[in-house]
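# step 3/5: fold
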Amino acid sequence: MRVTVIRKIESWVVMIAIAANVSGAMVLLALVAIMNVDVISRNLFNAPFRGVVEIVIFSLALIVFLQLPDVVRTGRLTRSDGFLGLMREGTPRFGETLTRFLDAVACVFMCLIVWAVWPEFTEAFESCHFFTPPEFGVAPTGEFWADFKTALARCDYFGTPGILQAPWWPVRLAVVFGCAWAAILFFFKVLLGDAHGTRHVTAQSTGEV
C-alpha cells in the first residue's frame, strides 16, 4: 500500500519533469529560430540581430535546467558507468545497492546546489519589488501592467545596456527548480530503484561506439 502511494506521487513528479522538458525544448526551438533570423539578416541585409549573444547565454541556462529532471528520470545523465555496468551484470544485488548509493549522493549534491542558489534567486526577485513598494523610484499606481513593467525595469539584470537586458531571477528560478526536481527524482530512485538502470551498461555490451 505504501509503495503504491509512493509510486503514485512519483508519477506526478514525472509528469512535471516531462512538462519541464517540453518547455526546455520550446526554448530551444525559439533559440534556433532567433539564430536563423540573425544569420539571414546578417548576410542578406547587413543588419545583425541585436542581443543574440545575450539571448543564447540566457536560453542555454534555461534549456539545461528545465530538461535536467527528465534527463535524470530517463537515466541519461552523463556519467562514467563502466564499473557499474559490470557490477549489474556480475553481481546484480551489489550493483543495485551501489546504484542507489550513487543516486543518494547525487540527491545530496542537487540539494546543495538548491541551497546555494536559492538566496541568489530571492535576492534577484526581491530587487524588482513586485509586491513591496520600492525605496526609490516610481511608486505603484495600482494599474497591474504599468506597475509590472516598472518593476521589471528595477530588476537585477543580465545583458548589455542599450542592446539587450533580461532579469536574472527567471534563470536562477530555473536552476532552483531543475536541481530541486532532479533531487526529488534521485530520492525516488533511492526508494524504488532505477527503472532505467538497464541502460547504464558499457558500450562493449551494447555494441555502441
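# step 4/5: annotate
The chain is about 70% helix and 5% strand.
# step 5/5: archive (pending)
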